[in-house]
Amino acid sequence: MVGHDVALQAAAEQIGRAQDEKALRPSIAGFFDEATNTVSYVVHDPATCEAAIIDSVLDYEAAAGRTSYGSADRIVEYVNSHNLKVTWLIETHAHADHISAAPYLQEKLGGKLAIGAEIIRVQEVFGKLFNAGTDFERDGSQFDHLFTDGEKFNLGEIEGIALHVPGHTPADMAFIIGDAAFVGDTIFMPDFGTARADFPGGDARELFRSIRRLLSLPEDTRLFLCHDYKAPGRDEYAWETTVGQQRRENVHVKDGVSEDEFVEMRTTRDKTLAMPNLIMPSVQVNIRGGRLPEPEDNGVSYIKIPVNAV
Ligand SMILES: [Fe+2]
């Protein structure tokens, strides 16, 4: 499969170069947010100290409608104490379970805010749902950069490449930096399985193909996940695994599971899942690049909840 897929081939070659040469491998710190089970990452090039922040979390107390910055400030502190220079603020997708802290981090640390180019499809669907009005641009312009499949980028002297991995949402991207792949909401730890595919624009068949695409990268590619929920019998949170481990052990997509079997399992399971607690505030804010809706004439921003519409 790698041979027919130019972007994937380039990713595999990049990973190979990084595995051969330590200077092409990034340093990675994971920050786990227990409230939303999200892992944020600070990834940096040890030689130049250039850094990317992936999938940050803004703390949000839904009942009170109050935001706070404990999670984001842990990242600010890490970046400052390691003298890192943030060049990228990356979102793997428009999250439905937490609000992004990217604008807050951008103000404190700089960097370009980026997401996958298909975000415009997500903006279209949710712009309609939230009746966002004509002042809400549905062209991705809330972000500084929109990544496309196979697009290369750099983190200091370390190579990066973006892969489009739709299915959970139409816009999901995986970002491969050196030998490490940040796979967003595609696959979870082997004992937990995979992300849901039932949000508007989601597709279980597409998700399977995206995951199998990632799993055709070299066996010892390091995979970093966006979430962990533990799993029956496991007491510790975990968010790092490898392609080889997933191919041998993933309870939903290990080698031998067919696309039809996966789709049947995923669709059945998704019907039993409740919507994430923070889906309405999260999506509404994240499709705006993590910025709250424009304040009304009293200076207050409001989060809308569509009633009987989802
Ligand atoms: Fe997600």
From TrEMBL:
Residues 37-227 form the Metallo-beta-lactamase domain. Pfam families: Lactamase_B. The keyword Protease does not apply. SUPFAM superfamilies: Metallo-hydrolase/oxidoreductase. GO terms for molecular function: hydrolase activity; metal ion binding; sulfur dioxygenase activity. It comes from the Bacteria. GO terms for biological process: glutathione metabolic process; hydrogen sulfide metabolic process. Signal peptide: none annotated. Keywords: Hydrolase, Metal-binding. This is MBL fold metallo-hydrolase. It comes from Erythrobacter aureus. The lineage of its organism: Bacteria, Pseudomonadati, Pseudomonadota, Alphaproteobacteria, Sphingomonadales.
